[in-house]
Amino acid sequence: MNPSDETPAASPSLPAFEDVLAAAARIAPHARATPVLRSRALDELAGCELHFKAEHLQRGGAFKFRGACNAVWSLDLDRARCGVVTHSSGNHGAALALAAKTRGIACHVVVPEGAVEAKLESIRRYGAVLHRCAPTIAAREAVCAEVQRETGAELVHPYADPRVIAGQGTAALELLRETGPLDALLAPVGGGGLLGGSAIATAALAPGCKVFGAEPEGAADAARSLAAGERRIDFVPDTVCDGLRGTLGEPNFALLRRHAVEVVVVDDAETVAAMRLFWRIAKQTIEPSSATVLAAVLKQRERFAGKRVGLVLSGGNVDLDALPWSAA
């Protein structure tokens, strides 16, 4: 993948805490205030106090509904009439389709070949029109542009749209309001919408809390970019975490740098082990992308020892016929 293939931000401006607060009010009638889960057994294994923000129990099965809902309900009537369009490997597409359904407007989703079937089924179920494309960012963008020309639909980028970033930040907002200040907060990082939004909310509500991203080794462009001081997005993703294969967005990178976010890289074996552990102990099904945060804490136990740690579980849209340990 070439840097030139990366989608530009929907706006050069970066969202602020006021935008997160506005998003929280805007999506309140539609989004679910997800619970914070606790497990004494997992606390003991990790050596710290874990607070899991259960976004796998969000509408649509992922945190993505927050950002999509904020974007859809931010549109004025004239723009809303033409509907919305996006490209997505699954969770964002399903979230935008559901958000569009809550407002009664059309939704078009461009999906790459090889997307998880369980996620595509959700997109169909919520009434969106699917458009297939080759599994590259360039192909996604080309088909999105074609749909825009034909329909006049508003592009809602999966992670670089400020409206989406602000909406994603409401998960950390809720978490911190329930738990009080934490010592550390972890969220998965792919394109960086969730992590960027989480960093905004955390800086405002718990300035002493360190924010970490959890990233798969096979798509570690955020870690490379932060280390280099510039985006390094020329890579071909190779990870079981299908939700984290997107490249780090430009505004997202700016937010991670602004808030001194650190990224912990985990390999797929560590992620799958954490996913299975969470299912066995907490009796909750989360997707591999979600499990990266638990894998990161378990990998760096000494870093988080004795601390109060928040973990955003990003989603639970798992294909039960293709569990990552089923071949073991």
Describe the structure.
There is one protein chain. The protein is α/β, with parallel strands linked by helices. The chain folds into 2 domains: 3-63 and 162-322, Rossmann fold; 65-155, Rossmann fold (3-Layer(aba) Sandwich), CATH 3.40.50.1100. It is built from 14 helices and 10 strands. The chain has helices spanning 17-27, 40-46, 64-74, 77-81, 91-103, 117-125, 137-151, 162-179, 193-205, 221-228, 250-258, 268-282, 288-299, 301-304; strands spanning 36-37, 49-54, 84-87, 107-112, 129-133, 154-155, 184-188, 210-216, 262-266, 308-313. The strands form 2 sheets. It has a 6-stranded mixed beta sheet, with helices on both faces. A 4-stranded parallel beta sheet has the order 5-4-3-6, with helices on both faces. Strand 3 (84-87), helix 5 and strand 4 form a beta-alpha-beta unit. Helix 3 (64-74) packs across helix 8, helix 5 runs parallel beside helix 6 (117-125) and helix 8 (162-179) crosses helix 9.
Task: Kindly list the characteristics that best describe this protein.
328 residues, alpha/beta, six-stranded mixed β-sheet, 14 helices, globular
Task: Average the pLDDT over all residues and give the rounded result.
Answer: 92
Q: Overall 3D geometry?
A: globular
CA gyration radius, whole angstroms:
18 Å
Helix content: 40-55%
Compute the number of strand runs. Answer: 10
Summarize it.
This protein has 328 residues and is an alpha/beta fold. It has 14 helices and ten strands. It has helices at 17-27, 40-46, 64-74, 77-81, 91-103, 117-125, 137-151, 162-179, 193-205, 221-228, 250-258, 268-282, 288-299, 301-304; strands at 36-37, 49-54, 84-87, 107-112, 129-133, 154-155, 184-188, 210-216, 262-266, 308-313.
